[in-house]
Amino acid sequence: MSKPRWSRSSNTSRSTAWLAAIVWMYVSGVAIPVMPGTLLEDRMSESLAPHVLLGQWEKLPHSPCAQRYPDTLEFRERGLYVGRSDPPGTFSLWDAGTFELLDPQHLRLSTANDALVTYDVSWQRDRLAFVDADGCEFAYRKMI
Q: Which structural domains are found in the chain, ordered by start?
């Protein structure tokens, strides 16, 4: 019998290289493979993506309606966040919980009373702005 033109190991290495060249975009919980350098990748990199959220954020000067939100916010891997207020022990609607970026304009967070609440968000460089269901607008600046 003749040997096949391709072997299992060479096919595997080709498919591994192909997969390594793909950027996986997660939009509304769906993984979309995107080749680097495509227009979709360029557009997604300019919009809010989960990796942009990771790190520490500090609340910017705000209106009184934003007092119920923490002074600092840290988004962590695996969709977890921690909010801290000053002085420590002050009530915050976002104390600790989970977050999910539904799309580049909507972020869902679990609140202090365990409700899952969706907020309108916009992102520009190091500034993350929120609008809650009551129309309260406030923003955070990325620290790290």
A: 8-46 (no CATH), 50-142 (2.40.128.490)
Nearest 10 degrees: CA dihedral of 13, 30, 112, 140? Answer: 80
Sign of CA dihedral 93, 63, 75, 119: positive
Q: How many residues does the chain have?
A: 144
Which amino acid is residue 108, in one-letter code? R
Which residue has tokens 């967070």?
109
Helix, strand, coil fractions of the chain, as percent rounded to 5? 25, 40, 35
Within the chain, strands assigned E span 23-27, 30-34, 55-59, 72-76, 80-84, 96-103, 106-110, 116-124, 127-131, 137-142
Per-residue tens of pLDDT for the chain, all 144 residues: 554 444 444 444 444 443 343 444 444 444 444 444 444 334 443 467 778 899 999 999 999 999 999 999 999 999 999 999 988 889 999 999 999 999 999 999 999 999 999 999 999 889 999 999 999 999 999 997
Q: Which residues contact 78 (CB under 8 A, 6 or more apart)?
A: none
